[in-house]
Request: fold
Amino acid sequence: MVTKSSAPSALRNQNAILEVISDEFQNVKVILEIGSGTGQHAIFFASQMPWLNWQTSDLTVNHGDINAWLEDANLDNVKVPLVLDVSEPLQTNDKYDAVFSANTAHIMSIVAVECMFRIVGQCLVDGGKFCLYGPFNQNGDFTSDSNREFDAHLKLQDSAMGIRDLEILDGLAEANGLRRATLYAMPANNMISIWIKN
Reply:
């Protein structure tokens, strides 16, 4: 029996995220997830939104976990993970109706975040949506004391990590042909930001 890793945060936030993306993705057919992690989100969301074809992706080191979850779930609408390092060119010319990523921007360096937005701009169809979930700063400041403490904790692990300013992300989006369309407040001082490719 294959041992699967489990991310407690994925279990905590999946229902709240689903409530938003099941509406945002109701006309989406093909989606790329950047940073699938354990694969739990992919399995849960694809099982709840059977009209989606969900393409997982991550660094090679995480593929074992993702494939283990995929094998157990045996869903027809989830694809085995692509090797995706945002700092390297995307290894596919496929286009996607939407891109989803959760809890990635604050554990990447800002250079890697810039690379992620560049990849999103390249692989999204016109009118496609980029959905990014996580903690964000607004107007250059933390939205809660807990986010301030979390940011300090991240920087102790790696000085390149940190909660990103939404306004900076909007600038990266604009540089890659996207504009912010919607911002959702989420539990535990997180948000979902939706950018649309022009």
Q: What stands out?
A: The domain at 8-197 is CATH 3.40.50.150 (Rossmann fold). The first strand starts at residue 30 and ends at 33. The two ends are 46 Å apart (CA to CA).
